[in-house]
Amino acid sequence: MSEETNSVSRKTTSTARLDATDRKLLGLLAVDATRSYADLGKLMNLSPPAVHERAKRLRQDGVIKATIAVLDGGLVGRPLLAFIHVDTTSWAVTRQLLALEEFPEVEEIHTITGESAMLLKVRTRDTQALEELLGRIHSIDGFKGTRSYIALSTYLERGPSAAI
């Protein structure tokens, strides 16, 4: 795991101080981060420089981690969405699996409680590509097993809400 990822993980363990205006700005940006500060200012009854300063502070505080384009998996050639529960023999092996972030098919990696050590969210072009990814996971020493779940439909996919 990169040092940047490590520092972001540590930052998210405490809650940032957000007022109602911050939360409204975050909600607007979560829906459309391409809006100009002038447009956001009109929607929030603030000047564009005031919106810019708030957004800048929220980035510095780590509340806004990135501004990204949310891609349609099907349209970019990865229509198969799957969730993989990964079982390992030890915590050290689980930490080794963080190297899976290098694979473009892996969108999310979570260590979890319960019967599995880790949960992966992956997108592949088809079941054959999923099988190849599972083969790479199975080749890791200390790996114990996987359970895969293929999503048939996605009705809601979003990040955290800033609403109280």
Describe the structure.
This protein has helices at 3-11, 20-31, 37-44, 48-60, 91-96, 127-138, and strands at residues 80-88, 106-111, 118-124, 143-150. The chain has 164 residues and is α+β, with helices and mostly antiparallel strands. It has two domains: 3-12 and 19-60, Arc Repressor Mutant, subunit A (Orthogonal Bundle), CATH 1.10.10; 80-150, Alpha-Beta Plaits, CATH 3.30.70. Strands 2-3-1-4 form a four-stranded antiparallel β-sheet. The longest helix has 13 residues, at 48-60. The radius of gyration is 19 Å and the shape is elongated. Mean pLDDT is 88; it is low at 1-12.
What's the short story on this structure?
The chain is α+β, with helices and mostly antiparallel strands and 164 residues long. It has helices spanning 3-11, 20-31, 37-44, 48-60, 91-96, 127-138; strands at residues 80-88, 106-111, 118-124, 143-150. Strands 2-3-1-4 form a four-stranded antiparallel β-sheet.
Write the layout of secondary structure elements.
Blueprint: H1 3-11, H2 20-31, H3 37-44, H4 48-60, E1 80-88, H5 91-96, E2 106-111, E3 118-124, H6 127-138, E4 143-150
Antiparallel strand pairs: 1-3, 1-4, 2-3
Helix pairs in contact: 3-4
